[in-house]
Amino acid sequence: MPSNLFAGPHLWILLIVILLLFGAAKLPALAKSMGQSARIFKGEMKAMKDDDKTAGAAEASTVDSTAVAPAPQQTPAASAPVEPAPGAPDAKS
């Protein structure tokens, strides 16, 4: 495969095909939406890198709290004696 595929006449042919497919009126809108998409993608990638940095710093500075102190036990709620519904069969029989 030639290394200069996007040089010279190949580039002109590619641009003409794109112009025929999308039309001259839609090309500015297409370029604008591609630019906005690229900007959003770049911002999200930067945010993910920042989140990774802050998560790594937070993990390094905290101590495993489950090994230090056991979790508090929950006390059972005060329960009233349960009476069977009227007409229900006895559990004794």
Walkthrough of the structure:
The chain has helices spanning 9-22, 27-61, 65-68. The chain has 93 residues and is mainly α. The termini are far apart. The mean pLDDT is 76.
SSE layout:
Blueprint: H1 9-22, H2 27-61, H3 65-68
Determine the fraction of residues in helical runs and give it as a percent range. Answer: 55-70%
Rounded to an integer in angstroms, the radius of gyration calculated over CA atoms is 34 Å
Order of helices and strands: HHH
User: Please, how many helices?
Assistant: 3
User: How many DSSP E strands?
Assistant: 0
Compute the separation of the termini in Å.
88 Å
Shape: elongated
* Largest sheet, strands/sense/barrel: none
Beta-strand residue fraction: under 5%
Please, what is the average pLDDT? 76
- Structural category is mainly alpha
Uncertain runs? none
Brief description of this entry?
The chain is an all-alpha fold. It has helices spanning about 10-20, 25-60, 65-70.
